[in-house]
Amino acid sequence: QEKINHFRNLHNIHVTGEDIPEPVETFEELATRFQLNARLVENITKIGYQQPTPIQMQAIPLVLQGRNILASAPTGSGKTAAFLIPIIQSLKCFNNFGYRAVVVSPTRELAKQTFFETDRLTLGTGLRTHLLEDVPKFVKRAKKNRSSRFDILVTTPNRLVFLLSKKPAVVSLESVEWLVIDESDKLFEADKEGGFRDQLAVIYKACSSPKVRRLLFSATFAIEVEEWCKQHLDNLAEVSIGARNA
Ligand code: ADP
Ligand code: MG
């Protein structure tokens, strides 16, 4: 335990919550400890990631434990792979259940970047990712009942809520096992009129499977986000890198 604490201090990893798993130091260790999918390991190597970043060291084992998480780490510190690697590992391969993971990004540009990262990390795994861009096309396709061709959905909250609010809804999130709110600090911060909170409530409700886990990632620690998590999420684990409000 002392060794683990020393390792966390060394990498500026702060954790709170019950039953926090040990961080991993290397991708090799991660691969053996969690029997990572060989293609996923190959993709990580091909991309050129040599060592997990501090947020990845702690968040990947936490997400693989299958729990609700609030994570904060500076911009550019690899948060995308911190949630994508364990989600890809957990989803394994394509199936016909419909979306099993949803990543909500504040802007189209960030959604696009997340999509590219998903694309290269899922290469050869059979998992399929959909970047929600063309809403009218999506609606048309959904009417032909062809929306279960993907496992992962990457979207902005506006587009997703638009689809969920149609009567009848043109997207189903019933099979979602992982709901990721990326840049949650920004989404809550810009939320003077409560618009995002309302959108989040719609999305949260639509992810109706008892299996769903929620992961909130942000660059800064935001008290509003923590309050929302404490109110809505059981057995929450919090992980932050560096000073809490850096
Ligand atoms: P954040 O979401 O924390 O701002 P990103 O996930 O966008 O950061 O990652 C920033 C950059 O770091 C990206 O170019 C990404 O490919 C790269 N990156 C992620 N993980 C690692 C790693 N373990 N080693 C080296 N580079 C990494
Ligand atoms: Mg990011």
UniProtKB/TrEMBL annotation:
Motif range (Q motif): 29-57
UniProt superkingdom: Eukaryota
Helicase ATP-binding domain ranges (all copies): 60-239
Domain DEAD-box RNA helicase Q as annotated: residue spans: 29-57
Family statement: Belongs to the DEAD box helicase family. DDX52/ROK1 subfamily.
Name the record gives this protein: Probable ATP-dependent RNA helicase DDX52
Originating organism: Ramazzottius varieornatus
Included stretch of the parent chain: 157 to 402 of 624
